[in-house]
Structures are given as C-alpha cells and as structure tokens.
Hints:
The protein has helices at 15-26, 31-38, 45-51, 87-99, 125-128, 132-142, 144-152, 186-206, 208-211, 244-247, 252-268, 270-290, 295-305, 346-354, 360-382, 388-402, 407-416, 424-435, and strands at residues 63-71, 74-81, 105-111, 113-120, 156-164, 171-179, 217-224, 230-239, 316-320, 324-332. By secondary structure, the chain is α+β, with helices and mostly antiparallel strands. It binds (R)-mevalonate.
Amino acid sequence: xxxxxxxxxxxxxxxxxxxxxxxxHVGLSExxxxxxxxxxxxxxxxxxxxxxxxxxxxxxxxxxxAPNFLINDTMYIIPMVIEESSVVAAASKAASxxxxxxxxxxxxxNVEKNGQIFFSWAGTVDDLKPYSKELEILINKVTESATxxxxxxxxxxxxxxxxxxxxxxxxxxxxxxxxxxDSMGANFINTCLEIISPELIHFINSKDELKRHxxxxxxxxILSNYTPxxxxxxxxxxxxxxxxxxxxxFSTQEFAQRFKQAVDIAINDPYRATTHNxxxxxxxxxxxxxxxNDFRAIEAGAQAYASHNGQYSSLTKLELSATEFTYTxxxxxxxxxxxxxxxxxxxxxxxxxxxxQPSAEQLMQITAAAGLAxxxxxxxALVTTGIQKGHMKLHLSNILTSMNxxxxxxxxxxxxxxxxxxxxxxxENFLKSLRN
Length: 436
Ligand code: MEV
C-alpha cells in the first residue's frame, strides 16, 4: 500500500476494517488486533466508543487513591489518575504530614470564567463607551432564555467590557464574564457568545454615530481558557521545628532555609519555574483526570497564569518567619462537577462519590491541595536527599515489569534493591545474575 495515499472514509469503516487498515498501512503483524482486543471493555465498550471517535480500544491508566488529605477540617481520600510512579506516594506522604500539622487551608478567591467575541471595526473603544448601558440591556435580553437555567443556580453573565487587541488596528473584543455554578460551563459560555455576537455587530452597524466608522464584522467567538478570575488559594503552615520528618540530615531551620531558596529560585528563574510548576501539576492533573475534567484547559489556563506578572514564575510562594513555615499555592482552576464526562464515565462518577459529591468550588480546593502536596514533597526531596533515591525505588516496579520478571524474581529484586541504588542497568545486571 502506498503510505502517502490519503485514507478515505476511515471513520465509516467498522472497527475490524480500521484495525486491518492500520496493520496493512503500517506493515504490522496481526498481533496488533489481539492487543487492541485485550483492552476492550467487556460491558461498557459502547459508552467508551461514544466518548471519542474512531475508537478501536481503550488506553488504561492506573486509578489510585491518596488518603489523609485534611482540607479545611474535612478529611478526603483523593482519587488520582497518573502514569508516573511516586506521585501518589508523595501526595499521600505529604497529606499525612500536613494532617498532623493543621491540614490544608483553602479559599476561593473568585469563580468567574471568560468568553471573547472578536470583531473588526474602524471605530474605537471610546466610541462605544456611551453605549455601555444600552449594550448591557441588549446582552441580557438576547441571552435571557439561554441563561435562565444558569441564573436559577446563581450563575449567568456577570459583566462585560470592550477592549482593543494590542498591535492590531481595528480589532476589538467583547470580553464577557460568566459564573457557571458547578459546571465547567464551556457549552453554556460558547452558546451565549454565539447568541451575542451577531446582535453586537447589528447594534454597532445600526447606530448612525457608530456606523460612520464603517461596518463592524464579526471574527470569532469562544470561551477563554485563561481564567485568572477563577482562582483558588491553598496554604499549609506549621512551626519550623515540626518539619523534622522532611529535613533529612539538616536541622529543621536549615531545611526551611533551603526550601525557601528553592522556591525563590523558581520565582525568579523560568527554567526552574517550569519544572517546579510541573511538580504541582503532577497532583493537579491526576485529580483533574480522575474527575473527568478537561486537563488541557486547566494546564493552559494555569500555565498562562504563571506568567501573569510578566515573566513565567512559580505558582507557589514561601513565607518564613523566625519560627513559622507558611507555604501557599495560588492557581486558577476552572473545574466542574456536573455536566461533561461527570454523568457519563463510570470512573468519574466513582471519583466524585469518593470525594462526597463536591461542588465545583470544593473540587477546586481539593485539586489545589493535591497540587501543593506534590510540589511540597518534590521540593523537600530536592533540597535534602535529591529526587532519584525515592523515585527510582518506585520506578523499580516499572523496570521489573518491562523486563518480564516472575513473581519470585520481583520479590528478590525488591529485597536486593532495598539497600542499593536503583538504575535500569543495575536491575538488568541483577536479573542476569539471578537468571544465570
Ligand atoms: C517530577 O515529575 C517532578 C519534579 O521534577 C518537580 C520538581 O522538580 O519540583 C521532581
């Protein structure tokens, strides 16, 4: 088969035809079919097929639980879906530590989301200013029925502003702010924007004072994943002397100072900030996935927020007094606990049950706590023993799996590597000697 040839009608092929096509196109053995078959779900496959398109199998990730998260005096067991060993262990260890030291204190700063209607027009924002009230009445009127349900749940359109786009003459946006209750609200926001957009254009083009600048034309309308106004703060705090379990060979004062240096480096150096924040997202993404939220949206929004002061920076900050260690994460998390996958995916339903059916605001706080726990564990390890010691121990299991070890070999390897540094070649040599 010519590999450059376009595949036509792939979506209309049966599952078997699709797989056969891939086997022939890539030149694979028929074993591919067995691998893909093995991970089909015995009873829920239709449901999974309908979540995406061209589905031929399922992609499994471990579903784990991190216990002992005391958040605002409520104890949670947090479901986490992640492929990286040590994340759940680090989260659980930090959660237990902080549960003994007052727990995570979280606070919602705001829960607004944003939508943007872009349009071109030769007038200016100042030309539109006198029409603000009239526009507000229009926006509320045309979205009345679309927002009725959301308004009855305390949400809806909260405000709007017109801004010009920097460096682009004659290009503007209507930035609309929304509250969406317990739903992430993407469909709601996009529906409202698509209702407002033609009305806005018609409004401008029908006013003599405005149309003398020429006709306005719509460009596009879409929600923004940048949600600096959907923000949660999560904080842990304890007397420095309590940090002993994490201080390793250092005094607790030295440990706290080293931790402060590490956080300040992440505040000031974007290379380090990226890795530091990645440690936060180890926790956040795992909860976002387990609860069926859109992890790309969360990542995009929170990573953008990490640059809100003009340079990419740490999402956490540490305050040290002579006696007190106070560590704070501030992160935008536009999460939902109704709608989307929450009513569809059985494991998402399980996650929300385990979390005792949280509101969106509660889920923001739980997710932030998982992020802070993971980052705290990572930074604590980095400034004491280094990351590899604990990491590679847990990674041992993955290496052993990749080397097709028997249960007996695994047991012996676990025993042997209790006192040895784990490395891929070390495990390989150990197994070789065992097998000889
Ligand atoms: C690894 O998944 C995460 C870390 O790199 C985070 C960090 O460096 O702070 C350990």
